[in-house]
Write a structure and sequence with these properties.
- Helix 3 packs antiparallel against helix 4.
- The chain has four domains: about 90 residues, conserved putative lor/sdh protein from methanococcus maripaludis s2 fold; about 90 residues, Elongation Factor Tu (Ef-tu), domain 3, CATH 2.40.30; about 60 residues, no CATH class; about 80 residues.
- A hairpin with a 5-residue loop joins strand 20 and strand 21.
- It is α+β, with helices and mostly antiparallel strands.
- It has six helices and 25 strands.
- The protein has a six-stranded antiparallel β-barrel with strand order 3-12-17-14-13-18.
Length: about 450
């Protein structure tokens, strides 16, 4: 019985080692393409759409492309404000008026300041002239002291001259303000926010509440110059390009707008885990980046409105179906084809029928020969017909994988083995079990027949 259990344990250990080796091979070696293997991607992944050809959707929000900030003169008091958040204003429309009485007092004070500085500068110049006369008649040991006094006085004069220029400019501005005590809108647009004159808060028509509201007294969204801001993850940012046509779709009805991506902000990833990050199930986080869409028309859109952004669906492109980046098509002007994976996972030249070429977005319409489920390769000089294909990323040979890393790899869970009280010396016998009769295997002997001799 003991020998039988040894055999069972030996087979279990060998099986576990074999399974572990098979798992490690597939985990670390089987993914690496062999010589002559080409990396391919599905057309749906390359074009940024789903397998059925549905475009990826990104969340977006309507924002102002041009915001004008207006602040009153810090030395004046606002008597009356004529606009509120949400009001439409034309260029030249009155926004607010200054308190005339306070302006007149401020103007008189500025004039007094100018006169006082002019008198002080004149006095200083006279003092310098007197010190220079004194310097010419002074004894040698007194000259150094007088020179220091002259330099100090000249420095004070320059400071006062600088202050005088500033005060004179304020007097000019105040004189112009007194001619017209009302401040007018420099642009046509809509008032986004108005700060309360008593400092109680700011009226924000769009109610962003995300820290983006201005600290200016009045902010105006210039005209209908809106844009749409969207966010894209690092996994799919490669599917977007500046100049790419997009379609903006309302979240509440069938309204649509056309536009183009004019900026992709790859300089700064968003850091808020609740708003700009998501978990992919593996415990890692993917960064999100902002991109901006310029609209052909913003009629019907509201500032702060949340919308969907669908890439590659401009008016001129809608209905083209499959829009493939131009660089995947070989012999564009002759007999166009792509390097595609066939049914046996080998590279073939797949002829395609082309539709309209969109130079601005760098895409071409594929009318026949390719579907979103097909897999294609980037047509560089190394791709040859008949080569094997792989969709798995791998570590190139020159990366120098350290085999010591296998010591830390996660091995699959194995079933618990029963505790065996087995001497260490018996272990070598387990690896080579000779064919023996029942007595040597330790199997129970046949019971002697009844009445047999003992």
């Amino acid at each position: 019985m003991k020998t039988f259990l040894k055999i069972v344990l030996t087979l279990a250990i060998l099986g576990a080692l074999g399974y572990g080796g098979w798992w490690a091979y597939n985990r670390y070696f089987a993914e690496a393409p062999k010589e002559g293997t080409v990396y391919v991607q599905s057309v749906s992944a390359i074009t940024g759409v789903g397998p059925a050809g549905h475009n990826s959707r990104y969340g977006g929000v309507v924002e102002a492309k041009n915001v004008i900030e207006i602040d009153p003169d810090k030395d004046l008091t606002v008597k009356e404000c004529f606009v509120s958040a949400g009001d439409k204003v034309e260029k030249g429309a009155p926004l607010f008026a200054y308190d005339v009485a306070s302006m007149e007092i401020a103007y008189e004070q500025l004039q007094l300041d100018v006169q006082g500085l002019e008198n002080s500068i004149q006095t200083g110049r006279e003092k310098v002239a007197s010190l220079k006369t004194k310097l010419a008649r002074a004894a040698e040991f007194k000259k150094y002291e007088i020179q220091v006094q002259i330099q100090t006085e000249e420095l004070e004069i320059r400071k006062k001259e600088y202050d005088l220029n500033g005060k004179r400019k304020q007097v000019e501005d105040m004189a112009k303000a007194l001619e017209n005590t009302v401040v007018y809108s420099p642009v046509t647009g809509k008032v986004r926010s108005v700060k309360s004159s008593d400092g109680a808060g700011t009226q924000d028509y769009y109610g962003y509440g995300d820290g983006s509201q201005s600290n200016a007294y009045i902010t105006i969204v210039a005209g209908n110059d809106y844009c749409v801001k969207g966010t894209v993850s690092e996994q799919t940012i490669h599917t977007l390009q500046e100049g790419m046509a997009v379609r903006i779709t309302s979240r509440v009805d069938d309204s649509r707008w056309q536009g183009r991506i004019y900026k992709i902000n790859t300089e700064e990833a968003k850091q808020s885990s609740s708003r700009y990050y998501y978990y992919d199930g593996g415990g890692e986080q993917a960064s999100k980046y902002e991109f901006f869409v310029e609209l052909d028309s913003s009629e019907g859109l509201l500032m702060g409105q949340h919308v969907y952004i669908e890439p590659g669906l401009g008016d001129e492109e809608e209905g083209d179906g499959l829009l493939l980046p131009l660089y995947y098509v070989v012999d564009l002007e002759g007999a166009p084809f792509v390097y595609a994976a066939d049914g046996e996972n080998r590279i073939e030249k797949r002829p395609v029928t082309l539709g309209e070429v969109h130079e601005d977005s760098g895409t071409v319409a594929i009318l026949e020969g390719l579907s979103f489920l097909d897999r294609i390769a980037f047509p560089d000089d190394t791709v040859q017909v008949g080569m094997a294909v792989s969709e798995t990323a791998y570590v190139p040979d020159d990366m120098g994988m350290d085999m010591s890393d296998f010591g830390a790899m996660d091995m699959p869970d194995m079933p618990d083995m029963p505790d065996m009280d087995m001497p260490e010396a018996d272990m070598p016998d387990m690896m080579d079990v000779p064919e023996t009769d029942d007595a040597e295997t330790g199997l129970p002997e046949e019971a002697p027949a009844e009445g047999a001799a003992g």
